[in-house]
Amino acid sequence: PSRMDFNVKKFASGAGLFFTRAVQFTEEKLGQAEKTELDAHFENLLSRADCTKLWTEKIYRQTEALLQPNPSARIEEFLYEKLDRKAPSRVTNGELLGQYMTDAAKEFGPGTPYGGTLIEVGECERRLGAAEREFLQTSAISFLTPLRNFLEGDWRTISKERRLLENLRLDLDACKTRLKKAKVAEAKAAVSAMCRCPEGHQHASSSCFQAEHELRVAQTEFDRQAEVTRLLLEGISSTHVNHLRCLHEFVEAQAAYYKQCHFHMQELQKELGSVIRLLPLRLPDAFALNSTNSAASACSASEGPVETDTLKIEEVQAPATGSRKAKVLYDYDAADSSELSLLADELITVYTVPGMDCDWLMGERGNQRGKVPVTYLELLS
């Protein structure tokens, strides 16, 4: 019973203190009570800390979304982390796409042009996926983890000490208010003592002495807590230095990742370029340049392609209609004088010539003219 009485008294005391602070805070907001103001430097430290927390949180959340766009996957990783368990390894989209392409190539036949190309592209996609996995792991360790440690560690400590400082400030201001009231009461009692009421004056002096003592204690506690909080807030500068180093590491990881991707894609383009040049592809119907010449340009089983030396480039004339613009997809070096060398991304004019192999078109660039492979072009409407 005595222990229960103690707990009840402790609870009542805590509730009373909370109520007193709430009253003090409300009176301050209404302008009915004085408020101890912090110095300008301290206020600047508070503002800087709030700003740091706000933007660190935003950067952290958006970096999370960048590295893992799937919200469900982020929640799953969060739960595993909170349960202190290692999240299962997740296949990247690039690795999964590469696997699908490889499986498709087995079905279509790896020896076919399409199957062989699927294998090449699939291998590249797997390498891109592996590079992405490494980038995600590096970024999580070097960038996300330090930001999260600040938000869940340092900032929580700062917030706790700030709340304690605010409570002590409210207690300090409440003591100042009580001392003022005690002094007013003492002054009134002094007047009463002159009117032959010494007991009242003695009681008022005792209350005033008690209020002064409480104020000194409250001031000491407030000053001590203000110093602790100030030191924590000044530590934000060290946080900025640490986050700056982490940011540099994130940029380095990102640059290395994109460099790897660029290298893999360049190698793939070279490989595909050499393969495409050897493929006996036909010009798709959708690329037919005009209906009048389509019959003459189509390859048939009974009519093979005309020998190169029978086609005199200088005698070829551009048709009045049917020519189109085309964008060059890859660099191409002419094998002989009948062909036109190409540079990737340039625009040329193309048209069909009766009797020419259907894998080729006649191309013009200014005064230059020559055969160009269809597979190196993107015909524009």
Automatic annotation (TrEMBL):
CDD domains: BAR_Endophilin_B2, SH3_Endophilin_B1. It is a peripheral membrane protein. Keywords: Apoptosis, Coiled coil, Cytoplasm, Golgi apparatus, Membrane, Mitochondrion, Mitochondrion outer membrane, SH3 domain. Residues 321-381 form the SH3 domain. Pfam families: BAR (PF03114), SH3_9 (PF14604). Residues 27-281 form the BAR domain. It is found in: Cytoplasm; Golgi apparatus membrane; Mitochondrion outer membrane. Residues 158-185 form a coiled coil. One of its GO terms (biological process) is apoptotic process. One of its GO terms (cellular component) is Golgi membrane. Belongs to the endophilin family. Homodimer, and heterodimer with SH3GLB1. This is Endophilin-B1. It comes from Gasterosteus aculeatus aculeatus.
